[in-house]
Structures are given as C-alpha cells and as structure tokens.
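Input (structure):
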C-alpha cells in the first residue's frame, strides 16, 4: 500500500509547570482493516525516533501506538486504565505507566481526528501530562 494520507501530529506536554509542543506533519498510510483503523508513518529526527516506523491502531475503546525499527515500543491508551510500557530514549529505556484520561476519535473513509489525554508516571515521582492530537486527511 502506498502513502495515501497526510498525517498531522501535535503533542502537548506539561512537565513541572513547563509546557512544550511537538509537531510533525508527514505522509503515510491510512486504512480500515477488520473494524480497526490503522495509521502508519516514518518518524523523523524532529521526534527523536528517526529510522523508526510508527503504527497507530484505533479500535473502539482503545488506541495502541507501536514503534518498530531503531526504537521499539508499544503504548496502549485505554480509558481509565494504567498500562505499563518501556519508553526508549537516547540515554536508555525508561519503565513508564500510561494513565489514560481521555480517548476520542472521529475516523471514517476520508480520515479524521484522534485526541488522547494521558499522564506518564515514572516511579510515582515524575508525572508528565500529555495530549496527543492526530489528524488524518486522505490525499486526493
């Protein structure tokens, strides 16, 4: 399958009262398979995950982000659930709990939006508030 979608990703982070925004716009793949939506794209140096393919799988009630390549990880966002993951960094892997507060999506034949609010919890000490916003537009 060839790249058929423009994918815009905006992540808001709040760490110790400081706010940061990471934005990425890229082209990738978008498809509906077996009742689940799939979004796939190649990461860039901007995100720190270069040489890595990211797949976002959206199903009713949960969203899973899987990275394969130079950096491997799997994060599951499930409303009201705390899921453990290992988050890769250039300095080593960090064990983290993902506490999902909100999962909304409006995806259809022509694309749509995903919004996830969650907290990364590292050893019950460092809490990072995040909001992940993904927009998918099919190319004409």
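Output (sequence):
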């Amino acid at each position: 399958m060839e790249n058929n979608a423009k994918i815009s990703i905006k992540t808001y982070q709040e760490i110790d009262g400081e706010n940061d925004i990471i934005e990425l716009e890229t082209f990738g793949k978008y498809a509906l398979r077996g009742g689940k939506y799939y979004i796939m794209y190649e990461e860039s140096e901007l995100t720190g995950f270069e040489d890595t393919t990211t797949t976002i799988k959206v199903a009713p009630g949960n969203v899973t982000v899987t990275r394969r390549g130079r950096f491997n990880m799997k994060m599951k966002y499930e409303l009201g659930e705390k899921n453990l993951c290992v988050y890769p960094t250039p300095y080593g892997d960090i064990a983290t709990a993902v506490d999902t507060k909100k999962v909304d999506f409006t995806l259809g034949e022509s694309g749509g939006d995903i919004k996830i609010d969650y907290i990364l919890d590292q050893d019950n000490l460092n809490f990072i508030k995040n909001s992940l916003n993904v927009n998918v537009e099919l190319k004409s």
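Notes: Residues 72 and 118 are 20 Å apart (CA to CA). The radius of gyration is 15 Å.
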